[in-house]
Amino acid sequence: MKRICRYLPLTILLLCCLQLATAQSLIDVNVGFGSVHDKASTTGIDQLTYGSCSPAISATCSKTSSLGGFFMGVGANLMLWKHFGAGMDVTLQPGKATYAQLPANLNFGSPASTLQSRVTFYDINGIYQPLNTKRATFQLIGGIGGVNTKFYQNYVSSGSPLGSSNFSQYASSANHFQMHAGAGVQVYVTDKVYIRPQFDTHYVPNFTEQFGSKLAVQGMVWIGYTIGDRQ
């Protein structure tokens, strides 16, 4: 949630500045809830060296997980004309997800740990609205952006005089370029408030370094508010 709050003021400020330059434009500000999915990688993490390995042929290779779970987002669109506009959004995991289980490494004196991940997608898009009525709009979206995956190691230890302990530390991160495409139907429940179910795909050329394919699919429901006169 803190990361979303960090992006939201900058997004609104940028779009408000553009709004002043275009009196007939509309601004949509929204938050979204849903999920992003990609299958698990066929490679795993070696429990002795922490390098890449194959779970099918190595007994000390920990499998990695697929991408999924709960995601939330924040975004804003600037509709410069009735059918064309631009927008930006950030979609992220608010919590850490289990990526791999790593048993104790006696060679390095490391206790058993859980490798966790947190994935963030961010996009800058062009928007085309072939259908635009008072009650609903149909949007086709396409653009570019990036993906950031952060990894954390979570350790649990017990047997000390102080009892069990649980702590997490940052391990590493990976950044990738991505291309984004989507479609959504924006339905107005009032003159200003809308709900937009939206389906998206993210093509990430190097995403196979962490997950099983270059294509991540996303389903979100966005709830938003339109600033400006829709007449």
Large-scale geometry: elongated
pLDDT averaged residue by residue: 86
SSE topology string: HEEEEEEEEEEEE
Q: Which percent bin holds the helix content? A: under 10%
How large a portion of the residues is in β-strands, by DSSP E?
Answer: over 45%
SS summary, helix count = 1
Structural class computed from helices and strand pairing: mainly beta
Strand order of the largest sheet: 1-5-6-8-9-10-11-12
**Roughly how many Å is the radius of gyration?**
21 Å
Describe the main β-sheet briefly. 8 strands, antiparallel, barrel
Distance between the termini: 34 Å
Low-confidence stretches: 18-22
Number of strands: 12
Keywords summarizing the entry:
single chain, 231 residues, mainly beta, 8-stranded antiparallel barrel, 3-stranded antiparallel beta sheet, 1 helix, 9% helix, elongated
